[in-house]
Amino acid sequence: RADNMFISGGENIYPETIERIFLTHPSILNCICLAKHDSKFGHVPILVIQSNDILSLASLKAWAKESLPSYKIPKAILNWPKTIPESKQARKQLLDYFKKLDE
Question: Residue 32 above 90 pLDDT?
């Protein structure tokens, strides 16, 4: 969706492309990619995941290198907050939730 697209270092990033790749990971039940402000690149992708396993950022980055260029690999992997249910509004709720944590 064009309304979710963000620019990172001059590259257009569509979060759904990143989400589709990570949803093929055997341990990820659900995920949403968000844009996080970055002073160098404008924005960078981060990934909020639901998983029954403990997954490290390093292992997920290594796994994603097979399918994504480096600028689309999330710079952070965050756990889905239990207070935010899965829904069509989850992307906005997650953006608001993590924005408050950065303040």
Answer: yes
